[in-house]
Amino acid sequence: MKPSTICVQSGWQPKKGEPRVLPIYQSTTFRYETSDQMARLFDLKDAGFFYTRLQNPTNESVAKKIAELEGGVACILTSSGQAASFYSIFNICEAGDHFVCCSAIYGGTYNLFAVTFKKLGIDVTFIDQDAPEEEIQKAFRPNTKCVFGETISNPSLQVLDIAKMAAIAHKNGVPLIVDNTFATPINCRPFEHGADIVMHSTTKYMDGHATQVGGCVVDSGKFDWNAHADKFPGLTKPDESYHGLVYTEAFGEGAYITKCTVQLMRDLGSIPSPFNAFLLNLGLETLHLRVPCHCANAQKVAEFLEKQEDVAWINYSGLSSNPYYALAQRQFDGGRSCGVVTFGIKGGRERAIKFMDSLKLAAIVTHVADARTCVLHPASHTHRQLSDEQLIEAGVKPDLIRFSVGIEDAEDIIADLQQALEVIRGC
Questions:
Q1: pLDDT 10s digits, 134-164
Q2: β-bridge pairing 176-179 and 144-150
Q3: DSSP conformation class of 260
């Protein structure tokens, strides 16, 4: 099915007499008739629902829809995008391991990898994703387990060359994990460009209405864990907590997500509520309509800002002047990237803040990729925990304004920008 049909029809398939709309299975537990039936579930010999921390019918239906949208074999929902980032790495890394990560990533993810993972004994090397292959290759070690990057980095809007990074990762016998939050599977399906695992903050475009916090991890099923068995013992060696079960032997291409579910979710419990999954599904049903609208509006906003003398610089890959324009045209459906535009205002941070405070339609919120236009100054807000050096490394300039273009009328959004620019011209 085409993505638009998947958005509406996939996941929940009601049988005779069942609800047409995905129901909320608001239950912690599920009944069985015999002790043996329950035992087989706990031994992973049978599939089924027995406790919502591991699986729930509402969550499962939404996960299936997302897996199909991305072209993957399986998906797990998490309680936040941060949890999804954590699970995607921790599922194959343990104390003493190392991974390579693009430096241009969301500030919270940078902190998770650079600070918290180090406390767990997992080391990371940050690299410039635009560097030549031979330069990136220097970051790899014998204990490197994966490469991580964002399709479109938040907030610097650098576009990841997925095919290039996948080739480097595979040359070193490790998978490429891609955060596809900003592009969404409507604009880009990283598996088609060589990525192995995809994750999302479903809080953003997938939900689209700022009603729930969530995340997901999707596996392509294409990475051959057994070909590099010594690197990934958690998947290829016996798991004593399940009587010596070997995930790759028992679950084949579903090994990665199964382990993520029955081991990590079992022990860490970052599960979304069924109600949050229900809300996420409502957002997914219009994802194919909203994303092109976000992008069309963002294109108009970017073209407007590019002509304003008070704008010091602008970054949007839909502009032919952008260094990522050719890559975006090749990698994204229709050349669309996302609905987020970043730019700087001449005169420094204080003038930029005055500009933001003068906006009326766009709201200053700690959010992005909402149906409503919103704005943020990352250096003062989402990335304020980073040093100036780390900010520059992550591609975040001190004057960077992250403008998330909504699905209102583009003329109204531009009029709001225009009046705010007039305010600062009078200062």
A1: 999 999 999 999 999 999 999 899 999 999 9
A2: parallel
A3: I
